[in-house]
Design brief:
heterodimer; A: 114 residues; mainly beta; B: 110 residues; four-stranded antiparallel beta sheet; 0% helix; 52% strand; globular
């Protein structure tokens, strides 16, 4: 089954403790991205990747890192989480970004930083 | 940058047709218009996409006028299960970004 898998689904952590949210897709997609969703603000893009070893900042990259060492994986890293990073996070992938394209989203990771 | 504007919320009754309009005044020549549906605690799900005129699939229709500064998602005969948030977004060809708006919360009543 074609899917984007995020782990964990729920995470509570303390300020400053490094964490990684994993994202994996099994569709051989080139394009992957991370979004955060906050009430009243919709989905905002954090980082995206056009292909292996190619990443770029989205609209809200501060406090986040990503890596793309393999095509299927695109982890989101919070080196020193802060309470304002409490949010619902979504990973997405698509076969390409040019032209007509459908993006597939994971089920989300609800992160709480206390 | 092509930003989108949608109504914050809409109400409807089962069996009615629902039209949700999105404004995207700064859309560029090569940008595509895409609509997604999101249920609580789930990731957005692709509904339909178009470039101009009209596109129809098994769940919805998308109407795009000639100037492409707006688009309308049409859901025929909605049911309770169509209660969700609907996002209009524009793929920005020159920046390789998908720009989400704040979405329209559709509530369908029996």
């Amino acid at each position: 089954e074609a899917q984007v898998t995020q782990n964990p689904r729920y995470l509570i952590t303390v300020t400053g403790k490094k964490l990684t949210v994993t994202c994996s897709q099994n569709m051989n997609h080139e394009y992957m991205s991370w979004y955060r969703q906050d009430p009243g603000l919709g989905l905002r893009q954090i980082y995206y990747s056009m292909n292996v070893e190619v990443t770029d900042k989205g609209d809200v990259p501060e406090g986040y890192k990503v890596s793309r060492k393999e095509k299927r994986n695109f982890p989101l890293i919070l080196e020193s989480p802060s309470p304002n990073q409490t949010s619902l996070y979504f990973c997405a992938s698509s076969p390409q970004i040019t032209g007509a394209v459908e993006a597939f989203f994971g089920q989300g990771t609800r992160l709480t930083v206390v | 940058l092509a930003k989108t504007t949608q109504p914050i919320s809409m109400d409807s009754y089962e069996g009615q047709e629902v039209n949700i309009t999105c404004s995207h005044n700064n859309i560029a020549t090569n940008d595509y218009i895409t609509w997604y549906q999101q249920f609580p605690s789930q990731g957005p799900r692709f509904i339909i996409q178009g470039y101009k005129t009209k596109v129809t699939n098994e769940v919805a229709s998308l109407f795009i006028p000639a100037d492409r500064k707006s688009s309308t998602l049409s859901l025929p005969r909605v049911s309770l299960s169509d209660t969700a948030v609907y996002y209009c977004l524009v793929y920005q060809y020159n920046t390789d970004k998908l720009i989400f708006g704040t979405g329209t919360r559709l509530q369908v009543f029996p």
